[in-house]
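Notebook entry, cofactor series.
This is the third protein in the set we're modelling with a bound small molecule. For this one the ligand is flavin mononucleotide. I'm keeping the input format identical across the series so the outputs can be compared line by line later. Sequence and SMILES below, as received.
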Amino acid sequence: MDEQALSVRDAIISRRSIKSFNGQPVEQRDITDILEDAVWAPNHGNRNPWRFVLAAEENYQEFLAVLREFGVPKWKELNEETLEKQMIKFTKASAALFVIVPEDARQKQRHEDFAAASILIQNVMLLAWDKGIGTCWKTPGFLDDPKFRAQLGVQPGERIISMLQFGHFDELPKAKPRTPAEELVTYWQEDSAE
Ligand SMILES: Cc1cc2nc3c(=O)[nH]c(=O)nc-3n(C[C@H](O)[C@H](O)[C@H](O)COP(=O)(O)O)c2cc1C
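Returned structure with ligand:
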């Protein structure tokens, strides 16, 4: 194991969602290495309920062209300059990983699969953070758009649950405060149920 690796605790606490990337490249190999580790996420029945579409390196540029075409419908009404401004949050990132999850008809399995894939995504975000790569889990409306889904080869019975952006950044965003767990815990006592 890499001696420089962050502790699990430090990775969890220090990781931030990066919303402002600086355009510096991220290698596809780094992302696939991260995925190889991230698939060790717990998942019920060993269903491995995920598959991925990765747009990285020069293919990320191809993806941006698809996004211009099939992204937000109202972008079509924008002039080139305004569209480029809207696109900055995408063009400054360096790669996008689409996490695709089966939508089991059985509710229990569907919830388990979504939960397992969410754990996998957290694994990816923490492993990337450890390599000095920023990420942001994005859920833009176009992920459910039939035309966009078709571009990614998403099948009926599958759902894209995340567009996970990768990139480098200049400034560490300020952490949004969390509610301390102490305020959220009810400690079980024998008379709790009364
Ligand atoms: C399920 C999920 C969906 C998210 N979708 C978006 C999104 O569409 N756009 C966005 O800017 N951030 C999105 N985020 C990132 C959150 O806004 C971010 O995690 C939150 O601001 C906390 O910041 P932190 O991760 O730096 O602690 C999403 C996060 C999660 C877990």
